[in-house]
């Protein structure tokens, strides 16, 4: 779990006091030369890290909610989500 971006939310259909951990992410994209996009993910309200500001990133989604235990964002081709966030404070599409 990544403590700085986790929030607790009560599940409305739970029959008991169930808490679901979620994190909210801001997702940015940039166009690549082959017509595809690369994606950058940062915890909600955090700025794009300085080492990634040399590229023009466009907002793709704000406050995107995902399970706190999720380790990938397949729609954005991001693997090892929690590892990248823990190591660098952001996650990116793998460059091929």
Question: Topology of this protein?
Answer:
Layout: E1 6-10, E2 19-31, E3 37-43, E4 58-67, H1 81-88, E5 91-92
Description of the structure:
This protein is mainly beta and 96 residues long. It has one helix and five strands. It has one helix at 81-88, and strands at residues 6-10, 19-31, 37-43, 58-67, 91-92. Strands 1, 2, 3, 4 and 5 form a five-stranded antiparallel β-sheet that branches.
Beta-strand proportion: 35-45%
SSE arrangement, N to C: EEEEHE
Number of helical runs? 1
- Gross morphology is globular
Q: State the major sheet.
A: 5 strands, antiparallel
Question: What is the average of the pLDDT values?
Answer: 79
Stretches where pLDDT is under 50 for at least 5 consecutive residues are 1-8, 10-18
Instruction: Please identify the structural class as seen in this structure.
Output: mainly beta
- Rg, Cα atoms, Å: 15 Å
User: Helix share of residues?
Assistant: under 10%
How many E strands?
Answer: 5
Brief overview, please?
By secondary structure, this protein is mainly beta. The chain has one helix at residues 81-88, and strands spanning 6-10, 19-31, 37-43, 58-67, 91-92.
Structural key phrases:
single chain, 96 residues, mainly beta, 5-stranded antiparallel sheet, 1 helix, globular, disordered N terminus
């Amino acid at each position: 779990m990544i403590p700085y971006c986790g929030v607790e939310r009560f599940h409305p259909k739970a029959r008991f006091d169930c808490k679901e951990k979620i994190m909210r992410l801001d997702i940015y994209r940039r166009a690549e030369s082959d017509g595809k996009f690369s994606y950058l993910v940062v915890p909600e309200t955090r700025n794009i890290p300085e080492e990634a500001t040399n590229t023009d990133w466009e907002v793709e989604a704000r406050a995107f909610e995902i399970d706190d235990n999720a380790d990938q964002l397949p729609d954005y081709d991001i693997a090892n989500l929690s590892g990248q966030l823990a190591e660098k404070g952001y996650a990116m599409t793998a460059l091929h």
